[in-house]
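2024-03-11 09:14:02 INFO worker-7 job=invfold-0412 stage=load source=structure_tokens
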């Protein structure tokens, strides 16, 4: 099970957001931008609105083309120009559920429409129609377009509705139409000339070529006279029914009939405020429009056939007008302005880019306001919400213009989440004024530090066990390294160091924006080279600079590009020398160059690309570089070309054109060896977006260079190509500025020479992985499983690396005296450095995962005791992991983080589970952290809900999926969280319905009112029958609801959090229901136990590696109290099935299921150690019947026999009294497994059999073994008083050699009776062999008698010749001791003699005990604490609970 927690690091400046697509739901607004980001703006249910973004959806690296909300469950479909589509849940935390790539032949998606659900649809999932086509690139020929139908839940292409050249030009609008006759769905596409083409959506077949019917072909000249000479169409809109198309021109809007192609009418706005010339001299013009839908805006029909539609038109100045257009029988046409939204006043600079969308009766205006910093253009979004039904009528009383809409709220991106806003230091940034880069370079005085905007970023972590720094490249050319973790705080900051500590370093010299960054650790040794780690930066100024990352000096400046440098690619894993110390630079000039860091020269140049290679991959083993020049504006042969270059010769190997190029490029990427640290195809640490990597399906790691196949290592699709997985070796930093490099001799980057080291590194689980999906945003993903598997890490390697670094560092710093003389490295330093790497990793994780500023006392305790503090220097936010490398990160601020706690049960479960597990692990590592760790665990299990009452309870199904986690701390945390949240999170179908007492009535008043109602209800028999019928119907309904809930598996969002399947959903439901039955039976329905027990048994027998062990534990725990009654006689059959399952698990696995061996061992331990003993104790007779039959039904060497013996031992330890009546059966079975005639069984079971005999002799005092372990004596514990015997066995021959008579003494037979005149009573209480083995002594509490058998030295020989009962040699009566009570339930002959059983006899007169009740009473009174100890040769001492009761001479 995956358990990932994400922490996001935001730069001090907010990101740029140029809106390209919008979508609104009743609860939120979504805006997509040109850089691929999608912002979520939550909205309250009613005004006033104050829209502010709460989360950033990270799944795309290209411009967003469409946002499509989907119903039930609410979700959002996103598409971008790169051909990637993604599905996000529309409710917090807006996790990415699916991320897929469209087929290369489909092209780039441009328009998306939700298809209506039809009865003929094979799937219940919603479907969407996606139009994919190339943008118009100016060529005269027509391009191939595709209309594909995609399952909106799985994002799989169901079928292709159209593939070919459209009859119309580039479509600008899409709509759906449904035929009233056969409910056939068709997609209507309209171009800029008003021409439309209808494409029927037929399942199962695609329509080829131009066969779809083109409804109208009309030229632009027919209506161009009403517009400017060029007749430019700004926008196209289609009505919801697809019958009317609106062509938005500069000053008017033409409405055309789709079917006939005729002009229905024109809406002129030439004299309105939308198109008037402003004071700045800029004349406004229309820029967009759409038809309103829903309610009164959706086009109602009148009696005369007139259809009234509502149309929104907006201008480039931000103003908009809402018109109601009436269209009837031609030439009937009329329009009326309903309301108006004022434009945006701009004093100077560029106007914002404006878009509108509808949300019910409101219009939302989205403005993308431009501003410049250092020559770069940025965009700031601004949202305003306007009402269409709340109008300001006073303004339009004396004018001809329509009334103004009322603004309901405004908001923007910059808020309190970015305390250092641009507007503080740059007051005119919103008005398009360019800000000097000199202001941004004034970092020394701090005046312009917060005014810089990040253009590139990456996280440094490949050489340490945890991320230690983040590198920011700014648009003004500065580079800043911020270190947020100091692994040795005491070395520099003295005692009491707290981390993460912030320190900074700057690299200055670039004259343009930093577009790409990379950090490389040198592999080869060189005496002439002083640097060990290099920082490489590419800039907008066309230069590449190489820096000494440790020393901070500039090493080289390269000028081989004539355009901006946009990518730097490091060598992947297993790259051969000397290419392992090189990097590849990619520029906008189309040049790809190979540069050596050893020689600081360009070694290879690969020119001649048709355009900028947007995707470049380097295969270091085979020695090839693949460059994909994929134009997002064309999908023809010219626009998509793949170039493959030979690195060794520098020659171009081949060129692949067309849509095949992308498929070949993906195949090329599959063959690249994964980086041993990053897990991606790109080597080292770079700033390349993790979303640029191709979405590969089912990839496996190829064989490495030494021939070792590592395909058994699973591929994690969540790992992006530049995800930086953290290696186990740590690099300590003494000064907080210069991270120490890893020892080269132990480095995993040894150019493939040490293959075994590489394979070992590949098999490591790196607990923290980092990526930068967008500039200025870094995500740290914490893998709980990998963190918990890091137990016992040693610091020895790191200590040696630290000493080597401190002695060899060129920039020596002041060190504490004696710091380098200590052979143990850091052990002399103060806390928290005096700990293992595991402890440092746990503290680092808690720094970023803990929710700060909610409980101040807890925060102070963490800082003081655990040395954990809130990170500083960058804004920290939370996030969640999505599908295939996607993320959703919240904006900084406690409010946004609490919002996700309040809305997502899955997030609450995952984050609480991670923190509680880490806290419990910290307690085991350090005693000084006990108080802080306990307080932290208590906060997330109980106190958090008290502090914030409206947070969501954790998802119970998600928690139970971690009950079998490999880490004990995770298992404990999952169970603790389950128990704390279970009483408040009972699923509705399982919850018992209780009558709630009104608040104004006390409990006594309620009972006084309820009792008369019950009495009156019982008077009428008819009413009683009616109630019974209602209860019967209700029971049937409850049964149906419970069964449906137990078998439900659809729409289980928590499954995607852990990578589960539908089987996991059903299994978790069964586990949750069973847990409620066992632990909380009073709050669930009574019939739940009967409905879930069979499902629970099936889950045990299904061998599910995640849930079967848990199901076995629940069956065992509730067997005596619940399941025993439900199962009845089926326990015996279940026992047989379990033993058969154990035999199957114990068989040798085949070669192809070796990975299941650990699962089989875990399951076997659960069945043997937990379930079987509980089943045996529930039905002991059935247990003995089953295990005795297994002797003949299975082979002699079957593991079932050993398992049966071990189960018998556990029953002895767990419930010995219940086994007392069946001692003979237990002894007989044990001796049968030791039969010398069956040597195979004896050899397999001898050890377990002797253990069982010793355990029986230890637990039952009426069973004795002699000191030489050759003789066994077994007395009757409970039985008939006239047939009490003691059997003596020879263990070597496994035979019964004599029977000793232990009946009552002569003359007193009538007194040896139990209650109710029964003769079944407690017989032999204790046995003991004499030290010489020639005698046997027995004590009976019933009668207080001690018997002694002594036959001299030849006793055993005489016994072996005859099995007739032998009378005792001596009989001694034991006097009652102090505290002995004959009036108790004990059956004593003394109580009969003294007449103290009057009370007992009086009870027997009132009721007669049957045989079963008498047996239960006897077992209850059976005392197993008596012991006989030999003091001397002929002296015996009787004890009870180790208390001396007397000494007797024999």
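2024-03-11 09:14:09 INFO worker-7 stage=emit residues=1450
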């Amino acid at each position: 099970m995956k358990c990932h927690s994400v922490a996001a690091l935001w730069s001090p400046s907010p990101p740029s957001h140029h809106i390209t697509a919008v979508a609104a739901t009743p609860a939120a607004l979504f805006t997509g931008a040109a850089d691929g980001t999608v912002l979520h703006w939550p909205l309250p249910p009613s005004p006033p609105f104050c829209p502010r973004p709460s989360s950033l959806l990270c799944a795309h690296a290209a411009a967003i083309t469409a946002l499509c909300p989907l119903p039930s469950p609410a979700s959002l479909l996103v598409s971008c120009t790169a051909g990637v589509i993604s599905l996000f849940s529309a409710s917090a935390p807006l996790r990415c559920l699916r991320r897929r790539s469209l087929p290369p032949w489909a092209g780039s998606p441009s328009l998306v429409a939700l298809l209506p659900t039809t009865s003929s649809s094979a799937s219940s999932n919603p479907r969407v129609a996606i139009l994919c086509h190339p943008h118009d690139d100016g060529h005269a020929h027509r391009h191939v377009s595709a209309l594909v139908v995609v399952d909106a839940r799985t994002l799989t292409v169901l079928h292709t509705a159209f593939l070919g050249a459209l009859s119309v030009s580039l479509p600008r609008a899409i709509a759906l139409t449904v035929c009233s006759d056969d409910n056939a769905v068709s997609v209507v596409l309209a171009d800029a000339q008003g021409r439309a083409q209808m494409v029927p959506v037929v399942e199962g077949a695609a329509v080829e070529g131009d066969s779809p019917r083109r409804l109208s072909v009309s030229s632009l000249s027919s209506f161009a006279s009403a517009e400017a000479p060029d007749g430019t169409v700004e926008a196209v809109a289609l009505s919801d029914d697809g019958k009317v198309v609106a062509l938005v021109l500069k000053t008017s809007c033409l409405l055309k009939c789709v079917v006939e192609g005729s002009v229905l009418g024109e809406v002129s706005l030439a004299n309105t405020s939308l198109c008037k010339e402003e004071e700045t001299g800029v004349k406004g013009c229309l820029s967009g429009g759409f038809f309103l839908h829903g309610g009164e805006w959706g086009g109602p029909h009148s009696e005369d056939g007139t259809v009234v539609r509502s149309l929104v038109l907006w201008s480039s100045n931000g103003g908009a007008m809402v018109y109601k257009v009436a269209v009837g029988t031609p030439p009937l046409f009329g329009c009326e302005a309903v309301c108006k939204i004022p434009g945006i006043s701009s004093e100077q600079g560029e106007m914002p880019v404006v878009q509108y969308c509808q949300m019910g009766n409101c219009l939302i205006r989205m403005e993308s306001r431009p501003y410049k910093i250092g020559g770069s253009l940025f965009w700031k979004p601004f949202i305003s919400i306007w009402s269409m039904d709340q109008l300001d009528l006073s303004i339009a009383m004396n004018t001809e213009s329509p009334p103004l809409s009322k603004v309901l709220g405004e908001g923007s991106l910059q808020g309190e989440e970015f305390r250092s806003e641009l507007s503080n230091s740059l007051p005119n940034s919103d008005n398009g004024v360019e800000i000097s880069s000199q202001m941004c370079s004034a970092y020394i005085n701090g005046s312009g530090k917060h005014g810089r905007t990040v253009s590139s970023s990456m996280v440094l972590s490949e050489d340490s066990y945890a991320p230690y720094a983040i590198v920011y490249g700014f648009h003004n050319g500065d580079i800043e390294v911020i270190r947020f973790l100091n692994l040795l705080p005491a070395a520099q900051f003295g005692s009491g160091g707290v981390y993460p500590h912030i320190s900074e370093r700057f690299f200055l010299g670039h004259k343009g924006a930093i577009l790409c960054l990379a950090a490389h650790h040198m592999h080869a040794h060189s005496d002439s080279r002083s640097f060990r780690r290099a920082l490489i930066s590419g800039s907008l100024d066309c230069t590449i600079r190489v820096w000494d990352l440790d020393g901070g000096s500039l090493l080289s400046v390269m000028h081989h590009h004539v355009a901006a440098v946009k990518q730097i690619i490091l060598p992947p894993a297993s790259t051969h020398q000397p290419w392992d110390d090189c990097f590849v630079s990619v520029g906008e000039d189309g040049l790809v160059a190979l540069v050596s860091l050893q020689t600081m020269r360009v070694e290879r140049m690969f020119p001649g690309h048709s355009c900028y290679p947007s995707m470049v991959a380097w295969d270091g083993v085979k020695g090839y570089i693949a460059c994909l020049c994929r134009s997002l504006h064309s999908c023809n042969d010219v626009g998509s070309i793949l170039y493959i270059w030979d690195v060794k010769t520098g020659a171009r190997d081949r060129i692949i054109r067309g849509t095949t190029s992308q498929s070949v490029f993906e195949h090329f990427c599959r063959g690249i060896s994964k980086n041993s640290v990053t897990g991606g195809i790109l080597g080292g640490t770079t700033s390349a977006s993790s979303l640029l990597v191709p979405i590969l399906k089912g990839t496996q790691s190829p064989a490495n260079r030494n021939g070792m196949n590592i395909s058994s290592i699973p591929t994690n699709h969540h790992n992006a190509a530049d995800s930086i997985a953290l290696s186990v070796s740590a690099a300590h930093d003494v000064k907080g500025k210069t991270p120490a490099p890893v020892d080269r001799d132990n480095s995993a980057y040894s150019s493939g020479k040490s293959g075994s080291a590489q394979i070992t590194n590949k098999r490591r689980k790196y607990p923290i992985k980092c990526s930068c999906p967008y500039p200025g945003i870094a995500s740290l993903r914490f893998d709980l499983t990998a963190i918990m598997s890091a137990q016992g890490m040693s610091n020895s390697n790191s200590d040696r690396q630290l000493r080597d670094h401190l002695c060899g560092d060129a920039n020596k710093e002041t060190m504490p005296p004696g710091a380098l003389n200590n052979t143990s490295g850091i052990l002399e330093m103060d806390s928290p450095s005096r700990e293992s790497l595991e402890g440092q990793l746990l503290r680092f994780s808690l720094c970023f995962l803990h929710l700060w500023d909610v409980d101040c006392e807890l925060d102070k305790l963490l800082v003081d005791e655990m040395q954990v503090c809130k990170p500083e220097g960058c804004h920290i936010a939370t996030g969640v992991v999505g599908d295939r490398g996607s993320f959703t990160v919240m904006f900084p601020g406690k409010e946004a983080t609490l919002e996700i706690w309040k809305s997502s049960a899955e997030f609450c479960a995952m984050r609480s589970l991670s923190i509680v597990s880490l806290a419990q692990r910290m307690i085991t590592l350090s005693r000084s952290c006990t108080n802080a760790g306990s307080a932290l665990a208590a906060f997330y299990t109980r106190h958090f809900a008290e502090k914030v009452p409206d947070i969501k309870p954790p998802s119970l199904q998600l928690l139970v999926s971690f009950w079998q986690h490999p880490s004990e701390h995770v298992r404990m945390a999952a169970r603790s969280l389950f128990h704390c949240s279970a009483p408040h999170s009972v699923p509705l179908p399982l919850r018992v319905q209780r009558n709630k007492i009104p608040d104004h009535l006390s409990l006594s008043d309620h009972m006084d009112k309820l009792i008369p109602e019950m009495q009156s209800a019982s008077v009428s028999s008819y009413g009683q029958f009616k109630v019974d019928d209602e209860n019967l119907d209700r029971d049937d309904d409850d049964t149906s609801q419970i069964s449906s809930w137990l078998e439900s598996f659809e729409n289980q969002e928590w499954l995607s959090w852990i990578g589960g399947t539908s089987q996991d959903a059903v299994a978790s439901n069964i586990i949750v229901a069973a847990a409620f039955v066992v632990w909380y039976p009073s709050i669930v329905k009574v019939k739940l136990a009967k409905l879930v027990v069979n499902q629970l048994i099936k889950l045990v027998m299904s061998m599910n590696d995640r849930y079967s062990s848990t199901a076995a534990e629940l069956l065992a725990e509730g067997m005596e109290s619940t399941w025993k009654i439900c199962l009845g006689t089926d326990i015996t059959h279940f026992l047989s099935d379990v033993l058969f399952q154990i035999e199957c698990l114990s068989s040798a696995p085949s070669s192809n299921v070796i990975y299941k061996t650990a699962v089989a061992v875990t399951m076997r331990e659960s069945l043997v150690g937990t379930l079987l003993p509980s089943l045996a104790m529930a039905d002991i007779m059935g247990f003995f019947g089953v295990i005795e039959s297994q002797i003949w039904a299975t082979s002699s060497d079957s593991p079932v026999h050993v398992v049966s013996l071990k189960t018998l031992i556990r029953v002895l330890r767990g419930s010995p009294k219940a086994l007392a009546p069946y001692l003979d059966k237990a002894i007989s079975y044990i001796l049968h497994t030791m039969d010398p005639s069956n040597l195979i069984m004896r050899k397999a079971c001898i050890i377990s059999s002797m253990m069982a005999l010793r355990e029986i002799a230890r637990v039952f005092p009426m069973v004795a073994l002699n000191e030489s372990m050759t003789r066994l004596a077994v007395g009757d514990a409970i039985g008939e008083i006239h047939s009490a015997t003691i059997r003596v066995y020879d263990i070597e021959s496994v035979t019964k050699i004599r029977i000793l008579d232990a009946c009552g003494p002569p003359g007193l037979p009538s007194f040896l009776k139990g209650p109710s005149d029964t003769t079944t009573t407690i017989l032999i209480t204790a046995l003991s062999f004499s030290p010489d083995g020639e005698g046997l002594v027995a004590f009976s509490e019933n009668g207080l008698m001690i018997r002694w058998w002594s036959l001299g030295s030849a006793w055993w020989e005489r016994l072996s010749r005859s099995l007739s009962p032998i009378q005792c040699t001596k009989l001694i009566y034991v006097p009652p001791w102090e505290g002995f009570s004959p009036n108790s339930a004990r059956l004593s002959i003394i109580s009969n003699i003294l007449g103290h059983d009057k009370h007992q006899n009086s009870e027997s007169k009132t009721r007669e005990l049957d045989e079963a009740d008498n047996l239960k009473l006897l077992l209850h009174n059976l005392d197993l604490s008596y012991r006989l100890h030999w003091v001397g040769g002929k002296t015996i001492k009787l004890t009870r609970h180790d208390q001396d009761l007397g000494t007797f001479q024999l």
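2024-03-11 09:14:09 INFO worker-7 stage=report msg="The chain has six domains: 219-413, 453-699+716-811+827-834, 838-864+904-984, 990-995+1022-1125, 1128-1259, 1261-1450."
2024-03-11 09:14:10 INFO worker-7 job finished
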